[in-house]
């Protein structure tokens, strides 16, 4: 079991930056594979960026070059640095983790653990 607590969201203008954090507690094995997802009302939750236990990272095309996912294993914390934010980045951002499968390939419905979400709002 693992508990994930998201933080760092807020409201910024276009071009601004935010850094999201996700602190994990519990079984470290459960956080072998982690990632950030986002959701807007009326749409399915979509993956944004993922990081594997060996440090491999993946990004969706719309955020590549602007967002950076990283993990501090010593502090059991996952980060998402978001730069050059756009209005279309607005949404509820969720941290996620799974012990066995990369979040880049696993179906969202099968992911083991989720944070409570943190809202990001980008105004034009």
Structure characterization notes:
The protein is mostly beta strands. The strands form two sheets. Strands 2, 4, 5, 6, 9, 10 and 11 form a seven-stranded mixed sheet that branches. It has a four-stranded antiparallel sheet with strand order 1-3-8-7, with no helix packed on it. The model has no long low-confidence stretch (mean pLDDT 95). It is built from no helices and eleven strands. The protein is 0% helix and 51% strand.
Residue fraction in strands? over 45%
Give the count of helical stretches: 0
Q: Report how far apart the termini are.
A: 40 Å
Which structural category fits the helices and strands?
mainly beta
Compute the average pLDDT. Answer: 95
Count the beta strands: 11
**Order of helical and strand elements:** EEEEEEEEEEE
Short description:
The protein is an all-beta fold.
Write the layout of secondary structure elements.
Layout (H helix, E strand, L loop, with lengths): L1 E6 L2 E4 L4 E9 L6 E7 L6 E6 L5 E3 L7 E6 L4 E6 L8 E8 L14 E2 L3 E6 L1
Parallel strand pairs: 2-11
Antiparallel strand pairs: 1-3, 3-8, 4-5, 4-9, 5-6, 7-8, 9-10, 9-11
Overview features:
globular, 11 strands, mainly beta, single chain, seven-stranded mixed β-sheet, 124 residues
């Amino acid at each position: 079991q693992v508990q994930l607590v998201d933080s760092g969201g807020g409201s910024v203008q276009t071009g601004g930056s935010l850094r999201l954090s996700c602190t994990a507690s519990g079984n470290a094995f459960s956080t072998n594979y982690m990632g950030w997802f986002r959701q807007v009302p009326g749409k399915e939750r979509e993956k944004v960026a993922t990081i594997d236990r060996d440090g491999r990272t993946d990004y969706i095309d719309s955020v590549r070059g602007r967002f950076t996912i990283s993990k501090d294993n010593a502090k059991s914390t996952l980060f998402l640095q978001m730069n050059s934010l756009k209005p279309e980045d607005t949404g509820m951002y969720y941290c996620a983790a799974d012990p066995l499968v990369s979040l880049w390939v696993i179906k969202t419905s099968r992911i083991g653990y989720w944070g409570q979400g943190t809202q990001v709002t980008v105004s034009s």
